[in-house]
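Dear H.,

Thanks for agreeing to be a second pair of eyes. The structure we're designing against is below in token form, covering all 290 positions.
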């Protein structure tokens, strides 16, 4: 009898343990989509393996090649603990203590809760390990000096993230803020930067005129002439879901990746929260189109 009861209890605890794990992986997959990990960590080209790295990220400082973040022991992050991932994503620090370049938007992910990073970790560790050695970054000195990133952090890294956290009481806007800033790091592209690559915090989400590395980045503030003040919340939701603009133009450039690998996978409720947050921003007049 005692043996039978022990067996039954062991079975129950083993199955509920793996149920919990499956649930964590599913939640982590959703968070990784909201955070756009796949679009940066998958190489360009249709035969590229998701998350195996090698995506060429062109910036005014040179080209970065994103690392392999599948759980391969030698070329990926197979030996990492969840705390290693928390330190990388929220402080920009590598397990050996070196500093990451802000091309990895830890500057936004700093606002993620540790629980959410642990769920993303559970998801990444559930992927098939893929061996893929990624090329070195092609950046010229002094920008390529990793130790200088320590100084960059002192100048530009803010523990509150890349945009000031919403301090009002509207729970939907609060969720939208978390999705747009902590996860979606939307402001990392949609905000002008100074010569050292720091965000211009007086012009958050105000966009940038055409530039040869990024194209034209539209103004996301609700300014009527130069921003998206004339888009309704449901216009924003359908754009983030399908890439279709209110004037029936299709999305172009890097925003297409953000939508395909990211926002198109989110629930309508979350997309509505993001739209409501964007609508709550102060309008900034900044013309980006030629
Ligand atoms: C905008 C592009 C971009 C996005 C989005 C992005 N990363 Fe990265 N990531 C990078 C770059 C570039 C590096 C390399 C930085 C360096 O060499 O200093 C990097 C580095 C990393 C590393 C360090 C790997 C190592 O071997 O040291 C991890 C882990 C990582 N990213 C995980 C993630 C996760 C998880 C997400 C989604 C939540 C994510 N990244 C989203 C660009 C990105
Ligand atoms: C990797 C850089 C990048 C990131 C990250 C990014 N965007 Fe974009 N976004 C762009 C570019 C480039 C365009 C212009 C695309 C076009 O003209 O079709 C754009 C266009 C848009 C537009 C259309 C505006 C207009 O006037 O046509 C909206 C809305 C938008 N983005 C919202 C977001 C949101 C919300 C996020 C965060 C989830 C985000 N973007 C993250 C680069 C980015």
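And this is the sequence the design step returned. I haven't edited it by hand at all.
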């Amino acid at each position: 009898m005692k043996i039978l009861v022990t067996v039954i209890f062991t079975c129950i605890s083993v199955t509920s343990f793996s149920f919990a794990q499956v649930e964590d992986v599913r939640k982590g997959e959703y968070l990784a989509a909201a955070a756009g990990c796949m679009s940066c960590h998958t190489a360009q080209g249709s035969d590229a393996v998701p998350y195996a790295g090698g995506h060429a990220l062109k910036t005014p400082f040179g080209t970065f090649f994103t690392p392999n973040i599948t759980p391969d022991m030698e070329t990926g992050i197979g030996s990492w603990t969840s705390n290693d991932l928390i330190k990388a994503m929220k402080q920009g620090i590598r397990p050996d203590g070196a500093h990451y370049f802000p091309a990895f938007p830890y500057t936004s992910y700093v606002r993620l809760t540790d629980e959410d990073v642990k769920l993303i970790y559970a998801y990444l560790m559930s992927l098939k390990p893929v061996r893929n050695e990624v090329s070195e970054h092609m950046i010229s000195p002094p920008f390529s000096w990793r130790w200088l990133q320590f100084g960059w952090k002192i100048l530009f890294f803010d523990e509150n993230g890349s945009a000031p956290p919403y301090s009002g009481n509207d729970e939907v806007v609060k969720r939208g803020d978390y999705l747009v800033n902590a996860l979606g790091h939307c402001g990392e592209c949609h905000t002008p930067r100074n010569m050292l690559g720091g965000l211009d915090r007086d012009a958050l989400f105000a966009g940038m005129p055409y530039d040869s590395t990024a194209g034209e980045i539209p103004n996301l503030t609700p300014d009527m002439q130069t921003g998206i003040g004339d888009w309704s919340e449901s216009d924003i939701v359908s754009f983030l879901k399908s890439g279709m603009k209110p004037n029936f133009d299709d999305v172009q450039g890097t925003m297409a990746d953000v939508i395909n690998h990211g926002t198109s996978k989110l629930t309508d409720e979350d997309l509505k929260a993001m739209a409501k947050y964007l609508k709550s921003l102060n309008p900034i007049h900044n013309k980006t189109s030629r």
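Two observations from my side: Strands lie at 56-59, 62-65, 138-139, 208-211, 215-217. The pocket of heme C (ligand 1) is lined by residues 32, 35-37, 40-41, 57, 64, 66-67, 69, 77, 85, 88, 94, 100-101, 103-105, 120 (CB under 6 Å).

Warmly,
E.
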